[in-house]
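Long-time lurker, first post.

We've been arguing in lab meeting about whether flavin-adenine dinucleotide would sit comfortably in this protein at all. Half the group thinks yes, half thinks no, and nobody has a model to point at. So I'm putting the question to the forum: if I give you the sequence and the SMILES, can you give me back a predicted structure of the complex? Inputs are below. Any interpretation is welcome too.
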Amino acid sequence: MKRVVIVGGGFAGVSCARRLTSNPGVHVTLIDKNNYQQFQPLLYQVATALLGPGKAGFSLRSLLRGHANVDVKLAEVVSANLTTRTVETADGKKYQGDFLILAAGAQVNFFGTTGADKYAYPLYSLRDAELLRSRILMLLESVDREPSLIEQGALNFVVVGAGPTGTETAGSLGHLIETAKKDLYNSLEWTKAQVFLVDHGHTVLNGFSKKSQEYAVGKLERQGVQIRFGVAVEEVHSGHVLLSDGTRILTRTAIWAGGLKASSLSDALGIQTGRGGRIDVQPDFSIAGFPGVYALGDFANITGADGPLPQLASVAQQAGYYCAHHIAAAIAGKPGKPFHYFDKGIMAMIGRNAAVAELGKKRHEMTGPIAFAAWLGVHALLLIPNRAKIEAFLDWAWDYFGGSNVNAVLDRPEQVAVNWQADEEKQMLQKIG
Ligand SMILES: Cc1cc2nc3c(=O)[nH]c(=O)nc-3n(C[C@H](O)[C@H](O)[C@H](O)COP(=O)(O)OP(=O)(O)OC[C@H]3O[C@@H](n4cnc5c(N)ncnc54)[C@H](O)[C@@H]3O)c2cc1C
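Top reply:
Settle the argument with this. Predicted structure of the protein with flavin-adenine dinucleotide, as tokens:
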């Protein structure tokens, strides 16, 4: 029996584990610091209270159930010896494999921006999304009781970074405001609510076509999102953000969609890391000099036939499937086949019933409801169990087209409490006048 240890139960790790379990000569140990797979493409909808957390997190044990040759371990891996293919967890346990697969994904990168690590809300994990949702709801509840808090920026939301995550989040906030205005918090002074989208570049959705970008900007502006191009966020404080042109925006919610780097495990491997702190891999995802060790998904710098591949769920998933076949071939003493990425394209949602999609390698462009439907189809395919595919597809479609209620449960009040009396902020407000 060959032992395979997989670190990370995301798109890459889970697809690899599932494919390997069909091989009776293999035993898989999948280790993750969460006991669920998080579906990152939907985090912004959880964060803006449009979906419940249960629709963006799937139990790893359920995803892998029915296979006797797989173990799931809830643990954080803190170091790895690539020569012996052994990992150690925070509680001191060691796991050694004939093959070791590192698929620990990515984490937020604040690029050293002052105060961002303390005050900004990143959007990379399900926990991040739940915290942000609670923060937004906490502010709405606070303003409902005390309208004067609006003057302290309580209804200003600043999204940092206009890539797909920032653009989708800004659009979704616009939509949340529309819904909350009508259905939930109808006594709030909504005309004073503002959503800002800030980017040091000069367009949204970098990497998309001009047509998609223009469509997205038009949609966002119609939803009232104020776009600030050509400025960087220099500082994030508890009550405001400072832009590089000197503008101060009072806010209690700076949402960080400004960039990613490899998960911190990459620093504990004792090897030189590449772009974005990720692990440079060979065409078969192995790490040079360490036979039997592989890095996949957002944890790796993967090169396809036309150059570096982006950090996308479909890249991670296909890499996971490929790696499983590659290992099965190695066990059988057969040569592995080269990896070919099947490019389904790129897409982003801008708001209810509005999306941009550039499908396939030729980037066939679509906008509007048809692009939204394409988004639903492609993302449902990323789900693993068929039942989850069908359920999620129906849920997303219902939630989005059907106009379901905002998921307004403030479930983490202690963690998102706002200190309206903080000295630093009081002084700042006095200075601003
Ligand atoms: C907000 C957001 C929206 C996105 N939207 C899209 C989209 O619409 N379409 C798309 O294709 N892609 C999208 N992406 C990108 C996509 O989600 C990633 O490319 C994909 O999740 C990468 O898969 P992965 O398996 O490499 O990593 P992940 O899915 O991040 O999984 C990594 C796993 O490793 C675990 N882990 C990390 N460190 C440790 C450790 N030390 N010990 C144990 N476990 C650990 C984590 O808990 C996690 O479960 C989005 C990403 C974000 C952040």
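For your lab meeting: The mean pLDDT is 91. The first strand starts at residue 2 and ends at 7. Whichever side wins, do check it experimentally.
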